[in-house]
Design goal:
Blueprint lengths: L4 H19 L11 E3 L6 E3 H17 L4 E4 H6 L13 E8 L1 H5 L6 E8 L2 E9 L4 E6 L2 E6 L5 E3 L12 E3 L10 H8 L4 E3 L4 H9 L5 E3 L6 H13 L3 E4 L14 E4 L2 H11 L6
Parallel strand pairs: 3-4, 10-11, 10-12
Antiparallel strand pairs: 1-2, 4-5, 5-6, 6-7, 7-8, 8-9, 12-14, 13-14
Helix pairs in contact: 1-2, 6-7
Length: about 280
C-alpha cells in the first residue's frame, strides 16, 4: 500500500488540525490536573498530548485503514504495541507533543512528529512546529523541504563543516548512563555549542536546515522521536545511522542514533563519542 502524494498532504493537514484543536488552546493554559508523569518526574504527559494523539490516530486510521497507527501515549499505556512498528507493512508513528516538558513549562519549543514506515524503514517524515505553523517534510524519493503556512517552500541542505570549534550539536546529557556523563561532558567541551533542546523535533529540524552539525540520541531510540527526523536529515543531504555504524530501523529499542550533516561529520562525531558503545 504505497503512500501517495495526496496521502502525505492529508497527513500534514491532520497534524495541523490537531495542533489547532488540541495543542495550542492548552499552551500556557494547563491546569495542575492536566499534567501527569510517566517514567519519572521529568517525563511528563499532558491533556494536550492525549487529546491530540486521539484526534490524529482516528483521522489517520480513516485515511489509511490498512496501516498500523501507534502513538507515544498509546505505547506508554500498552508497551506491547511498540512491537508492531518494526514489522508492519505500513506503520504511522505519532509523537503528539514532542518536547512535552517544554510545553508544560510554557516554553514555545515543542512540535508534532509523524513518521510513516514500511517494515521499519522510514518512507515519510513530518516535523511540525505548531507555534509558527510551518513544517519540514521528506519522503524516501523526495528532498527535505521546509514549508511555511502560506505555502512557500524551499529545499534544505545540511551543514558539512567538520571543525568542532564552530560546530553546534545536540547531546542529551541527562539521558546518558550516569557512569558515562562525565566522559560525555568532557567530549563536548570544545564544541562551539553543545546542548539539548529537550525536543527531538526541533533538534532534527536544526540539523536538516544546516544550523547544527549533528544530533546524538540517548540509549533508547524511540521511533516516535527519531524515525521522521532520520529521514528528513538524510533527504537534506546528511547521514543518519546508529552510533555503531548499523542502519537505523524504527523497530530498534536500544542504541544511540547519530544524525549528522555529512559522512565526514558523522565519522568525526562517532569517533569522539564511540566510547558510549562500550559496556
Amino acid at each position: 500500500m504505497p503512500l501517495t502524494t495526496s496521502d502525505q498532504q492529508a497527513l500534514i493537514e491532520i497534524v495541523r488540525a490537531a495542533a489547532r484543536d488540541c495543542i495550542l488552546p492548552r499552551f500556557r493554559r494547563l491546569a495542575v490536573a492536566d499534567v501527569s508523569t510517566k517514567s519519572g518526574p521529568t517525563d511528563l504527559v499532558t491533556l494536550a498530548d492525549t487529546e491530540a494523539e486521539a484526534q490524529i490516530t482516528a483521522a489517520v486510521r480513516a485515511l489509511l485503514p490498512g496501516a498500523v497507527v501507534v502513538g507515544e501515549e498509546a505505547i506508554a499505556a500498552t508497551p506491547a504495541l511498540r512491537n508492531t512498528i518494526g514489522t508492519a507493512d505500513l506503520a504511522v508513528i505519532i509523537d503528539p507533543v514532542d518536547g512535552t516538558w517544554n510545553f508544560a513549562k510554557g516554553l514555545p519549543l515543542f512540535g508534532v512528529i509523524l513518521a510513516v514506515t514500511e517494515r521499519g524503514q522510514p518512507v515519510f517524515g513530518l516535523l511540525y512546529d505548531p507555534v509558527m505553523d510551518d513544517w519540514i517534510t521528506a519522503a524516501s524519493d523526495t528532498p527535505a523541504m521546509r514549508v511555511m503556512a502560506e505555502g512557500t517552500s524551499h529545499r534544505l541542505h545540511t551543514a558539512t563543516d567538520t571543525r568542532f570549534g564552530p560546530m553546534a550539536g545536540y547531546i542529551p546529557l541527562g539521558l546518558m548512563p550516569r557512569a558515562k556523563r562525565g566522559a560525555v561532558a568532557a567530549a563536548m567541551a570544545d564544541l562551539g555549542r553543545a546542548t539539548s533542546l529537550r525536543c527531538s523535533c526541533h533538534e532534527y529540524r536544526m540539523v536538516a536546515q544546516g544550523h547544527a552539525g549533528f544530533a546524538l540520541s540517548g540509549p533508547v531510540p524511540h521511533a516516535w522521536d527519531h524515525a521522521a527526523g532520520v529521514l528528513c536529515v538524510e533527504r537534506a543531504g546528511g547521514v543518519a545511522r546508529m552510533l555503531d555504524g548499523s542502519p537505523y530501523h524504527a523497530g530498534l529499542t536500544r542504541g544511540h542514533v547519530l544524525a549528522a550533516g555529512s559522512e565526514a561529520v558523522w565519522e568525526a562525531v562517532a569517533a569522539r563519542f564511540g566510547f558510549l558503545l562500550a559496556g
